[in-house]
Amino acid sequence: xxxxxxxxxxxxxxxxxxxxxxxxxxxxxxxxxxxxxxxxxxxxxxxxxxxxxxxxxxxxxxxxxxxxxxxxxxxxxxxxxxxxxxxxxxxxxxxxxxxxxxxxxxxxxxxxxxxxxxxxxxxxxxxxxxxxxxxxxx
Length: 138
Hints:
single chain, 138 residues, mainly beta, Jelly Rolls, 6-stranded antiparallel beta sheet, 3-stranded antiparallel beta sheet, 8% helix, 43% strand
């Protein structure tokens, strides 16, 4: 059970916000990727005021084995394959099963989440809508 992970103390006062997967968000790396040697990544993601569509608003999957999201501020509405539409709000949490198709429908201007994903170097792939969704759209 013991891993060769490092102790990490990430200081809020030293937070560095950077671009990431989505242009409409800024990302604060919490040091977990380095601390776990890439087994996990943890970051805070917050809306940055840019108003634009991006590819992650399309149906997509994350090639990962674990994804947890807790809303720190604001709200967002997502649609998940086989689960329907869910609006997550401040204090809510989502455990997203690996490889589940999903898409973001909308989010508030103050949307901010803590996200933990394994592995740290996961990839995101645009995919066709789920069959039930595609049939409903016809």
